[in-house]
């Protein structure tokens, strides 16, 4: 094996894995988003945005290994806006619920969250072996998948409290917290893309604005 073939092999393996992770996260976004609407759960609706966040991060890694900085920055901004879309929907749902918090249907919430744990756990397992191969982005993808499992467990805990209290407040409060996390994630993706845009201009010898 030549000296430069090992890095190429590692990069190819990373690209394959992040693409698989992006696809399964994107697919489960629609599952959890739909269940959240049917169950009337703000927290589950907000949690579904995490799957778009993970999709964005892993797609950014996938294209970052082959695209120039300028195109990578443009896609990063697009991904940040994609994350904000469902987060905005969840935000409006939360605002409407403050007047009269209604307890969600607990069983669909728990089942969807168990599925989310399976998806995030699988993503974390796949990314664990390549988390050092793509710099900060691949490590961020691994940590995001790992941390999302904790959020999924929190949603299940909320469902248990809801079943005990028959109150919609636990779901609403947790949902607002997850929405804030999603907005922060979108901002971080936007900031990374802006840094890449400025780096691309610097490499091109253009004036930095």
What does this structure look like?
With 209 residues, the chain is mostly helical. The protein contains 6 helices and no strands. Helix 1 runs antiparallel to helix 4 (106-128), helix 2 (42-64) packs antiparallel against helix 3 (69-97) and helix 5 (135-165) packs antiparallel against helix 6 (169-203). The chain is globular, with a radius of gyration of 19 Å. It starts with a helix and ends in a 6-residue tail after the last helix.
**Strand-pairing-aware structural class:** mainly alpha
Which H/E pattern describes the elements? HHHHHH
Q: How many DSSP E strands?
A: 0
- The level of helicity is over 70%
What is the number of helices? 6
Tell me the overall shape: globular
Rounded to the nearest angstrom, the radius of gyration is 19 Å
Name a few traits of the molecule.
single chain, 209 residues, 6 helices
Q: Care to give the gist of this entry?
A:
The protein has six helices and no strands.
Please outline the helices and strands.
Elements: H1 5-39, H2 42-64, H3 69-97, H4 106-128, H5 135-165, H6 169-203
Helix pairs in contact: 1-2, 1-4, 2-3, 2-5, 2-6, 3-6, 4-5, 5-6
């Amino acid at each position: 094996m030549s000296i430069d073939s090992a890095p190429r092999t590692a990069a190819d393996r990373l690209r394959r894995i992040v693409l698989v992770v992006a696809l399964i996260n994107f697919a489960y976004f629609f599952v959890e988003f739909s269940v959240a609407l049917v169950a009337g759960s703000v927290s589950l609706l907000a949690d579904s945005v995490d799957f778009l966040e993970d999709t964005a991060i892993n797609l950014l890694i996938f294209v970052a290994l082959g695209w120039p900085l300028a195109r990578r920055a443009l896609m990063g901004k697009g991904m940040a806006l994609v994350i904000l879309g469902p987060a905005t929907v969840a935000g409006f749902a939360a605002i409407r619920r403050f007047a009269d918090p209604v307890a969600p249907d607990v069983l669909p919430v728990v089942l969807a969250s168990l599925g989310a744990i399976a998806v995030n756990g699988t993503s974390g397992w796949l990314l664990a072996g390549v988390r050092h191969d793509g710099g900060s982005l691949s490590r961020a993808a691994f940590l995001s998948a790992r941390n999302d499992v904790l959020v999924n467990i929190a949603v299940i805990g909320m469902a248990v409290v809801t079943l005990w209290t028959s109150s919609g407040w636990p779901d609403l409060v947790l949902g607002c917290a997850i929405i804030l996390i999603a907005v922060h994630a979108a901002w971080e993706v936007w900031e990374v893309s802006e840094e890449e845009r400025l780096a691309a201009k610097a490499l091109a010898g253009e004036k930095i604005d």
